[in-house]
Structures are given as C-alpha cells and as structure tokens.
C-alpha cells in the first residue's frame, strides 16, 4: 500500500476546528465564531480513511501511522497551566470529532526517560522557590546555540526511549504544550524519517515571557496566546504561515458557560 501523507495546509483544517472550540469560539480578531459543520462525504482512496467537504477539500487523512487518527499531547506538570491546556485541547477534540480521534495526554519524559528529563517537575518546584536560580537558568539557556546543543545531546542520549514513548501511541498529530517538548521529539521524528508524516503543533501557554525553546522552525503550526508572542516567534525563525494568534486554551465547558451569558 502506498502511504498518502496530508500536507500541513490540509491538516490545518483539523486543528483550526479544534482551536475554535478550545479558545471559546473566539477567533483571533476577537469576534464570536459561529461554527457550522460542513457536510462530509466519505472518500475511498485505497485503504485509507479520508473525508471530503462539499468544496472538495480533504479534511481527515491518514498521516504517518498504520492506525489512523491518534493525537498525542505532550505536557509536564511544571506550572504554567500545561496540564490544563492539554486537557482543554483533549476535550475540544472529543466534542468536535467524537471517537474519530483517540487523544492521549502524556508526560513522555517522566514515563520513558531518565534524569534530567524525568525529574523536571521536582526541579521546577525547587527553582521557583529560589527565584535567582530560576532567572539564571532561564537567561543562561536562552541563546539558541546553548539550548539547541543541550537538547540535541539529550535527544541523542535518550533517542530510543523517546522514540518508544512517542511511537507507543502511533500519533498522526503531536501537540506540545510545553517549551521543552519541541526540539527532542522533532529530532527523533527526523531521525526516524517521520517528520513529514506526523503533524507537529505547538500551543504556547506563556502569555508574554516565553523561553526561546517554545519556538522551533520545523513545527507545522505554532499557536500563540498574544501578538507579542507571535512577534517573538517570527524573531526566533518561524514563518508567518506557521503562526496563529488565538489566546490561551480554555475548557469548552467554561467557554459555553461564558458565551451563554453574552
């Protein structure tokens, strides 16, 4: 069977629908977004499951895994609302697509790797209690050549473990909601020849002061919570076509409660 791979432009429609749910039905211009489902008709292309809108746009395609429609959300309990954002995205996928997608929210570092990746939660709690240490760590790792070299070394050392953690879920889409979960997974995908078969999305959960590790030029989409962060993304090497400004993720149930009062 010949594997067909969705382009980022076609796959974007999947995540855009979810983001309209997860960001409370408000688009990046601040207006209420009235969501209308388009009628979809099933298309048969060899053995893959694909759907086509009335305008002929392919919406759901198999992308890089034998099992279709798996979404792996990478997070860590290191503050900044990473878990809350991950769960908001998970809930939005379930509302928008039902059982068409299987959603996994995982801390792959904690479950599959060793020190220092599996100890980030404890290290974070220690540093926030020692503000000066946090500032030193933040600023000393900000230069690209430093954090890129550091993360590349860790990726090489834990390549097999990270690969096992990612591939256990056979992801079609990987969504990162943590600044340290771009470089290493993307490096592993590149080494395995899967970078063009697995869609990679970053959802930034820091409103203003973003560490440069949030930004990686090989992501398919980078969702920014503010225009200031979007400017940082451009400065750090992303293209305008990769960047969307949507605000911070919120639970769909909370959004519905707020919108019902408007």
From TrEMBL:
SUPFAM superfamilies: UDP-Glycosyltransferase/glycogen phosphorylase. The lineage of its organism: Eukaryota, Viridiplantae, Streptophyta, Embryophyta, Tracheophyta. Transmembrane segments: none annotated. One of its GO terms (biological process) is glycolipid biosynthetic process. Residues 82-250 form the Diacylglycerol glucosyltransferase N-terminal domain. GO terms for cellular component: membrane. The keyword RNA-binding does not apply. This is Diacylglycerol glucosyltransferase N-terminal domain-containing protein.
């Amino acid at each position: 069977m010949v594997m067909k791979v969705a382009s980022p432009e076609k796959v974007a429609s999947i995540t855009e629908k979810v983001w309209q749910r997860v960001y409370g039905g408000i688009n990046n211009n601040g207006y209420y977004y009235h969501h209308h489902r388009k009628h979809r008709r099933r298309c048969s292309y060899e053995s893959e499951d694909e759907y086509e809108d009335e305008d002929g746009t392919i919406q759901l395609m198999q992308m890089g895994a034998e099992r279709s429609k798996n979404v792996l959300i990478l997070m860590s309990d290191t503050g900044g609302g990473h878990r809350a954002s991950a769960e908001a995205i998970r809930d939005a996928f379930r509302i928008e697509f039902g059982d068409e997608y299987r959603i996994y929210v995982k801390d792959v570092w904690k479950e599959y790797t060793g020190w220092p990746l599996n100890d980030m939660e404890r290290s974070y709690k220690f540093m926030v209690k020692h503000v000066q240490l946090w500032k030193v760590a933040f600023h000393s790792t900000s230069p690209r050549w430093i954090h890129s070299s550091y993360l590349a070394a860790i990726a090489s050392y834990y390549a097999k473990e990270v690969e096992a953690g990612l591939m256990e879920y056979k992801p079609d889409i990987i969504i990162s909601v943590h600044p340290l979960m771009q470089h290493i997974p993307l490096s592993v995908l590149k080494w395995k020849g899967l970078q063009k078969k697995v869609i990679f999305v970053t959802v930034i959960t820091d409103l203003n002061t973003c560490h440069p590790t949030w930004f990686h030029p090989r992501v398919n989409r980078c969702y920014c919570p503010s225009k200031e962060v979007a400017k940082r993304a451009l400065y750090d090497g992303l293209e305008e076509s990769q960047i969307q400004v949507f605000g911070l993720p919120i639970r769909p149930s909370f959004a519905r409660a707020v919108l019902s009062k408007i």
